[in-house]
Amino acid sequence: MLTKNRSRAMVAAALLLAASAAQAHPGHGVDGLAAGLMHPFTGLDHLLAMLAVGLWSAASARGAQRARGPLVFLAMLLLGGLLASAGLVLPGVEAGVALSVVLLAVLMLGARHIPAPAGLLIVAAAALLHGQAHGVEWQAGASFAAYATGFVLGSAALHGAGLGAGAWLQRVQAWAWRAVAALIGGGGLVMLATRL
């Protein structure tokens, strides 16, 4: 028992340390499909958020309804990116992105108790912020369509991974679900602290 708890604590600490060091938006320019595809995988905040949406969707809905969370996220992600590429950027996007990771973890913990419309509203708001972060990095003069196609496809892949992991986690002990949500939320809190 002590070994299991120690292992869990070590994994949690490693993830939190990685979260504090990771910056999703290091200021590099992006200008194509490959850069868009990689973006969701190279920033811990994006990675955690995309997985959390898939995890929440797996726990909060059944059958085809599970696609609602990822579809809402992808639509609002694209809208946020389009707005940012046009120069309409919300204030505090970086802190908002980190806060969205925390809120998505809370959503995971309340997956069966938070009404679906409220959950989808949280997902939509998070996606708009993440889209803004993607759009800010786009280089003017490059193809926004190629870059946006990439970040939407990369995000969809992570949502799929979250849906698969969520389906698996529903079959294991409840502490595993809570531990994953706590790790995601803890990572978001550390990122938020570094961005305020």
TrEMBL record:
<dbReference type="InterPro" id="IPR007038">
    <property type="entry name" value="HupE_UreJ"/>
</dbReference>
<dbReference type="Pfam" id="PF04955">
    <property type="entry name" value="HupE_UreJ"/>
</dbReference>
<feature type="signal peptide">
    <location>
        <begin position="1"/>
        <end position="24"/>
    </location>
</feature>
<keyword id="KW-0732">Signal</keyword>
<keyword id="KW-1133">Transmembrane helix</keyword>
<protein>
    <submittedName>
        <fullName>HupE/UreJ family protein</fullName>
    </submittedName>
</protein>
<keyword id="KW-0472">Membrane</keyword>
<feature type="transmembrane region" description="Helical">
    <location>
        <begin position="141"/>
        <end position="169"/>
    </location>
</feature>
<feature type="transmembrane region" description="Helical">
    <location>
        <begin position="71"/>
        <end position="90"/>
    </location>
</feature>
<feature type="transmembrane region" description="Helical">
    <location>
        <begin position="96"/>
        <end position="129"/>
    </location>
</feature>
<keyword id="KW-0812">Transmembrane</keyword>
<feature type="transmembrane region" description="Helical">
    <location>
        <begin position="175"/>
        <end position="194"/>
    </location>
</feature>
<feature type="transmembrane region" description="Helical">
    <location>
        <begin position="40"/>
        <end position="59"/>
    </location>
</feature>
